[in-house]
Amino acid sequence: MGAHLAGYREALARLGELLDAAERGRSATVRCGDRTVAVVDRHALARIYPSKVQVVAEESGWSAFIPGLPVAADGSTFDEAIGELLDALREYAEDWQDHLSDAPDHRDNWGLMQMICLSSDAQLRQWLVGVSP
Q1: Do 49 and 103 belong together in one domain?
Q2: In a shared domain, residues 74 and 116
Q3: d(C-alpha 70, C-alpha 88), whole Å
Q4: H or E element: which one contains 114?
Q5: What is the DSSP letter of 71?
Q6: Are 31 and 78 in the same domain?
Q7: What SUPFAM superfamilies does the record point to (predicted)?
């Protein structure tokens, strides 16, 4: 069962229950007046937004990009290209929060941006390549 809490005070008093529900992939919400806010676990976002990274071997090294996102990276090795792509994703997430969130071509990337911002570098690298660090 999910956790649906009415107001900030109840959310503070039952924060553990709220976080446990989110971690289990159950609905976890806080309602305050006419606003309802959902709490979502990073792992759930990673499942909803699977990595679509494409990595291509070239004569001089590797290129990595994610179709549909304005991010790309190059490196002399596979790991270097992935590291550069990770940096490019972080920069895009900053730009998205700063000004791209209202742009028609970018506003639908909300969940992906949350997943990027909530991930450590190791988690983001694992998401990109699909293996544990």
Answers
A1: yes
A2: yes
A3: 9
A4: helix 110-118
A5: -
A6: no
A7: TTHA1013/TTHA0281-like
